[in-house]
Amino acid sequence: MAKKVAIVSLGCAKNQVDAEMMLFTLRQAGYKIIEDPAMADVAIVNTCGFIESAKQESIEEILELGKLKQEGKIKAILVTGCLAERYKDQIMDQLYEVDGVIGIGANGDIAQVVEEALNGKKPQSFPDKLEMPMNGGRVQSTQQHYAYLKVADGCDNCCTYCAIPLIRGKFRSRKIEDLVAEAQTLVNNGVKELIVIAQDTTRYGEDIYGKLMLPTLLNQLCAIDGLQWVRMLYCYPDRITDELLDCMATNQKVINYIDLPLQHCNGNILKAMNRRGDVNSLTALINKIRTKLPDAVLRTTLIVGFPGETDKEFEELSQFINDVRFERLGCFTYSPEEDTKAALMENQIDEEIKAHRQEIIMEQQHIIMEEYCRSLMGKTIEVLTEGYDKYAQCYFGRSKADSPDVDGKVFFNIDSRKPQIGELVRVKLDDYLDCDPIGTMVD
User: Fold this and answer.
1) What DSSP assignment string belongs to 80-109?
2) Which domain holds residue 428?
3) Residues 305 and 385 occupy one common structural domain
4) Which of 185, 182, 300 is closest to 237 using CA atoms?
5) 386 in the same domain as 333
6) Which domain-ending residue is among 358, 374, 390?
7) What is the pLDDT of residues 8-49, one digit of tens each?
8) What b/e readout covers 270-291, taking b as 16+ CB neighbours within 10 angstroms?
9) Burial of 417 per CB tally in 10 Å (0-12, 13-18, 19+)
10) 21-33 burial code (b ≥16 CB/10 A, e <16)
């Protein structure tokens, strides 16, 4: 009987794609892939190590699986991903539940690692992180109608608060022909929406083609029959070019949704973060986007409490949010990470002050999002159907304004015909609850 393997993938969608590739390798090697780790012979935790809270989540998951192992339900626990890459020595020394740990460069060897763990060995493998496979088959772990397309790995930006370059290595793009072939396979398997991701998506192609190639890639993806939406995440403001905006304006399949991880707007703070721009340049960029793409939905992420952030600099950020009015926004408190320059900076901010600033930003954003919801009332929008909520007794899905897991849902009733999961339907909006629009499907 085939041994059963389950992967618990934590953190970002980029990590999820890595997990899907490992699942494919394991399936090809004859292992049975299952969803519930409690029913598996081997449980793999594909960890995130980006910020302190993500590390804690990874450790807690390992400890929970350790209880199942003590009960005899799991034979072995393996740790992969960013936490494994970053803390390879500490994991085996401090987490006795773990039977093996590998860095991202060994992802392609996962089947051999599982076999060794089942045979009682304690596999540990940390080849060069640049050896991590970037092409190959995947076992899709999202719903069938959408999938992530990882166009590059690593990062060269070296923001002072971020450990990603240390963990994932230098920025490296995949070839266009490989990406288009993978996208075609995903669409053949039922994918309607492709979500293009990388650590710095707008930098795609610069390292291997000598110029920014995201618009070229998008044009080729849009030529795939059956693909209906193309969404982009992690678009750095420095590389939002006129060519990219023109590509979005002319390709109906490319959703006018731009995820801009700005982190801050104050020039001094951004310089300390090793990022470019200030409130004036960022406001000008956003105005340009909204001029070229009048229906654009803008999402950003912010960091409050960065070392040295004064009350005045925070107030500038607060005013910027009120002026720009992002349709989507997430705010995090600064987390000092080992081996980063920012962790050694003076004037670290008290945790209570950080939390208070975060609360202020999110309260502001809630008001802005309610205003955005009110502007949608009476409009008819496209919704990608994702399921039926038996408690609310209605269907739900996502609009072009909603990226999976990070944004909200659209809830809708039906008059007659039941929609299929993954079907694009038109919904007329007439209400909202907690910033999730509500409406009725129209034929």
Assistant:
1) EEHHHHHSHHHHHHH-TT-SEEE-GGGGGG
2) 380-442
3) no
4) 300
5) no
6) 374
7) 998 899 999 999 999 999 999 999 999 999 899 999 999 987
8) bebbebebbbeebeebbeebee
9) exposed
10) bbbbbbbeeebeb
